[in-house]
Amino acid sequence: MDTEANAEILKDPKIETILHSELGLSILNDRIKSHLNISKELANFLKKRSVLEEQSAKDLQKIAKSFLETFQDKNPPSTSFPAALIKSLQIHEQLASNSFTQQKALSTCSDEVLDFYKNCDRKRKSIKEYAKRQENTYLEAVIQMDKSKARFKSAEHDYNHTLDQKNASDNQKKVGFFKPKSNAQLSKLEEEARSKAESAESDMKSKIQNAQTAQQELLLIHRPNYIKQFFSLQREIEAALNCNYLRYSKLCETHTVMNGLLIRPQTPSTKSSGFENALDNFNSNADFRQYVLDTAVRRKNNQNPSDASKTKIVQPPSSYGPANQSSTPPSINISIPSNPTHISSQSTSNFNRPMTSHHLQSANRPKSDKQETLPSTANALKPSTPISPISSKTSPSPTKSETHHTNVDQQSATVHESSNTNVTQLPPLTKSPSQTSASTKPPSPDILSSHHANATQKDSPPKILDTSILFGAHLEAILLREHSNVPNIVVQCTSQIETFGLNLQGIYRIPSSAAKVSALRHQFTVEPLTKLNSPKDYGNDIHSLADLLKSFFRELSEPLIPNQHYNDFIEAGNVDDEARRRDAVHRAINDLPDANYSTIRHITIHLAKIKENSDVNKMSTNNLAIIWGPTLLKQATIPEISSFSRTIEILIDYCFTIFDYD
């Protein structure tokens, strides 16, 4: 019924008149060609849409997988927010899988539309050839008819001319100098002209009959036939376009619904929670508690032995008798909160300073006159750990100055020992005169020093923050002293090299003179916060700054890559795939302590700038990695240095992917 209803348009008088004219073939052919062009454009659109969907799915899958691996390695899934984020990344992987399914469906649809276009185009050409052939048959018949008419008219004209000559008088028969033709000749000419005219007339009638037959066949059979074929092909193309458009809309709807159910399922469960429901188990307090406990366990070995929260500072009793009490200043009261949260670096730095004799004399002054003060601290202070017995041999009585220095050293050792053990003040003791005289001899400083060293080595963790030196110091100690994120010597050297030495051939490879490097080393050792403002400050020798910088990193008490992170960087360099090696190096970098992270970030950005000018300075990524690999590691084997050099190459090549450039 729909086909018959659509065919009614062909019975419209105006439409029928136009289509059955000579314009009908070109109009119908152009109509089919426009429909086929739409089909071709639709196929191309679906193909490009599938390519975009595939590329989007690959990018989404890649970034979700990369972030998922990195995030799982750096963050424990036991805490609530990382667990929620991991779920969301897994949802992104499922979204990528849906996009791959959508891409395959779109690609299949595009191929089918393109095949349909090719088949319909072949049908169009076939119908057009049939119509052209029939139109040409009619035109050929008309041409032959016109030619036969022309021949008949010519024969008729010759016959009439012959009759006129036969009926003319004798004077009229003479033409020019020729003799007039006889009646016999004229009769013969008449018969010949009549025969030609009759033959032309018969041929003309035959040609006219053929033309009429061709015309009737064209108008009644062939034109209606190819008009219906063109119209049927048009309806077929339109139906296919509508079908594929609805198919495309259905694919988009299905893809959107599937993604929507992933993002926000109607019935959330443990397997499909969606983005919003992934935060249902978020517990900030539990996460904070877990983070503090885990971080404390990881950083237990890096604790400062002079931590204020674990140190009890007390003043020792006066050790010089009543004669010196008048000149002692008032005692200093130090209150320590039970749960300290923050103490400035300036206040904590005072805990490591040695106490002078002036402060020692003012400690623990007697509260009442009834208490007796011992003339020496040998019996007043008892160390928390036993001291080896003193030799019973007598020695000459020390002078007042010697006794003063001995007591100060003994008290300083006792107070310094209290950084890890609680030292309590003992009450004054009452001695008999004999005991008092015998106890006035203090223990030997050598014995106290050896005891203090043994007690510190046994009871306290290793001391890593030594702020008294630059070369050979611990990196964290340098940054605490300078109140910065990157050591000043590193900043000064790199800034001068970037200003004046980026185009210097062989930078970091060509050595400088030892005298210039030694002079710069002494300058920074005396004043670690030295500022380099111009090349005159370092003798116009950029290479000396490069050697000084490498010497600083080689002599750190702990390498820039700490020992506990050593294997992470070696294993990252052993990864064959470059993308996975980059991700492994990125994870290892993010696990570094803050001091090491900020410093290696600064030096890596500096080396990346050196590499950008490798066409001039001849220092490629490989050359820089060969030089800096052994510089940043200590006591590494040749295979380990080779692996770490590949790590350095990744850091330089992907510098601004791994680090943010401010």
Automatic annotation (TrEMBL):
Stretches the record annotates as Disordered: 299-462
Residues in coiled coil: 183-217
Name this protein carries in UniProt: Rho-type GTPase activating protein Rga7
Organism domain of life: Eukaryota
Example of a GO biological process term: signal transduction
Biased segments, Polar residues type: 316-325, 346-365, 408-441
One Pfam family cited in the UniProt record for this chain: RhoGAP
Biased composition (Low complexity): 326-345, 382-400
UniProt keyword Chloroplast present: no
Signal peptide per UniProt: none
Xref: Gene3D superfamilies: Arfaptin homology (AH) domain/BAR domain, Rho GTPase activation protein
Species of provenance: Schizosaccharomyces cryophilus (strain OY26 / ATCC MYA-4695 / CBS 11777 / NBRC 106824 / NRRL Y48691)
Domain Rho-GAP: 473-659
Any GO MF annotation of the entry: GTPase activator activity
Keywords: Coiled coil, GTPase activation
Record domain F-BAR: where: 13-287
Any one GO CC term of the record: cell division site
